[in-house]
Write a structure and sequence with these properties.
single chain, about 325 residues, alpha/beta, TIM Barrel, eight-stranded parallel beta sheet, four-stranded antiparallel beta sheet, 7 helices, about 20% strand, globular, disordered N terminus, binds ligand RRO
C-alpha cells in the first residue's frame, strides 16, 4: 500500500494464470488428491471453477474398502494417514460421478493408481477422450498399500516404463505424482519426463508413525502411514527445488501449504503450480481465500503476474 495516498494496489490487474504443460490454469491452486473427495463434496464451500484445477481422490480399477481403523492421527503441525485408497472403482466413477462433475471445474484432473504397472495404461485408456476430463495424475507414490510404499514410484526404470505405457494409452496430459521416500527424487522425476510425462507433482506423504507408549498401541491401524501438513513443507520445498533444476517439464509443488506466502515460496523455489491438501480439513474454502490473498500479496509488491515468481529464487 502507498502510505502517501493510501491507495489499495490494484489486485484485479494481477494475472494468476499458469501453464502446466498443455493445461492452462486460471490460477496456480489445485486441490491435492484425497483432500477434496471426488470434487462435488467441495461445492458447498466454493465454486469448483475457482480452483486452477480439481484433482480427485485416487481411483483404482477394482473397488477398494481401504485400510483398517484408525486411519488418521494428528501430530504437531501434521497429519498422519493410512486411508488405503478406498473407492468404488473407475467404472463407477465414469458411469455415476463424472456425468455430474463434468463441466463444474475449470480443469479436472483424474488421479489413478494401478495395482501393477500395466494397470495404469488400462485406467488411462478408459478415461481417454471422456468429456470433462482434462488430465491425469498418476499416483505412483501411495504410501498406504500392503507392503508399504508402491514399489513403482521408487525405481526410475519402472517409472520410465510405466509412464511410457500411459503415454501410449492416452492423449490426455499426464502429471506424475512422486514419492519423497527415496534418496534421489530428481532421478525419478527425470525418468517420468523421459517416459513422456507432461509434468510432475511432489511430494506425496512422508512415511511416518505414531505410538502410545502407555497402551503400547500404534496410532494407525497399519502402524506406518503418510505424513502431510505444515510439518513437511521444508522437505517439500527442498525437493521441488531439486527437481525443478533437473527437469524441463513443469513441477507442481505439494506439502503443507496453508497461506498465500507458502504458495509463492513454492513458486519461487521452482514450482509452476501447487496443490493444497491438508489445510482443507480446517479451511474447506482455502482455495478461493488463497487466490484472493495471492492477488493482494503480488499487487502489494508491484507484481503483475504470478508467473514472474516461478523459479525466481537466487542462490549465491
Ligand atoms: O489413500 C491413501 O491412503 C493415500 C494415498 Br492414495 C496417497 O497417495 N497418499 C496418502 O498419503 N494416502
Amino acid at each position: 500500500m502507498n502510505p502517501a495516498t493510501s491507495e489499495q494496489p490494484a489486485t484485479d490487474t494481477v494475472d494468476l494464470s499458469v501453464q502446466v504443460g498443455p493445461l492452462h490454469l486460471s490460477n496456480p491452486l489445485m486441490t491435492a488428491s484425497g483432500t477434496a473427495g471426488l470434487g462435488l463434496e467441495m461445492e458447498p464451500f466454493f465454486d469448483l471453477a475457482e480452483a486452477g484445477a480439481i484433482v480427485v481422490k485416487t481411483l483404482t480399477k477394482a473397488p477398494r474398502h481401504g485400510n483398517p481403523m484408525p486411519r488418521l492421527v494428528e501430530t504437531p503441525s501434521g497429519l498422519l494417514n493410512s486411508i488405503g485408497l478406498p473407492n468404488k472403482g473407475i467404472d463407477h466413477f465414469i458411469e455415476q460421478v463424472l456425468p455430474r462433475l463434468a463441466g463444474h471445474a475449470s480443469c479436472l484432473v483424474i488421479n489413478i493408481a494401478g495395482t501393477c504397472t500395466g494397470e495404469f495404461g488400462e485406467l488411462a485408456s478408459k478415461l481417454d477422450g471422456l468429456p470433462g476430463v482434462d488430465g491425469l495424475e498418476l499416483n505412483i507414490s501411495c504410501p498406504n498399500v500392503e507392503g508399504g510404499d508402491l514399489p513403482f514410484g521408487r525405481d526410475p526404470d519402472v517409472v520410465h516404463r510405466l509412464v511410457g505405457d500411459v503415454r501410449s494409452a492416452t492423449a490426455l496430459p499426464i502429471i506424475t505424482k512422486l514419492t519423497p521416500n527415496v534418496s534421489d527424487i530428481a532421478a525419478v522425476a527425470k525418468a517420468a519426463e523421459d517416459g513422456g510425462s507432461d509434468a510432475v507433482s511432489l511430494i506425496n506423504t512422508l512415511l511416518g508413525m505414531a505410538v502410545d507408549w502407555r497402551t503400547g498401541r500404534p496410532g494407525l491401524g497399519t502402524v506406518v502411514g503418510g505424513l502431510s501438513g505444515p510439518a513437511i513443507k521444508p522437505v517439500a520445498l527442498r525437493m521441488v527445488w531439486e527437481v525443478s533444476r533437473s527437469v524441463a517439464i513443469p513441477v507442481v509443488g505439494i506439502g503443507g501449504i496453508t497461506s498465500a506466502d507458502d504458495v509463492l515460496e513454492f513458486l519461487c523455489a521452482g514450482a509452476t503450480a501447487v496443490q493444497v491438501g491438508t489445510t482443507h480439513y480446517r479451511t474447506p474454502d482455502a482455495i478461493p481465500r488463497l487466490a484472493a490473498e495471492l492477488s493482494r500479496l503480488l499487487a502489494e509488491e508491484g507484481r503483475t503476474s504470478a508467473r514472474d515468481v516461478i523459479g525466481s529464487m537466487r542462490t549465491g
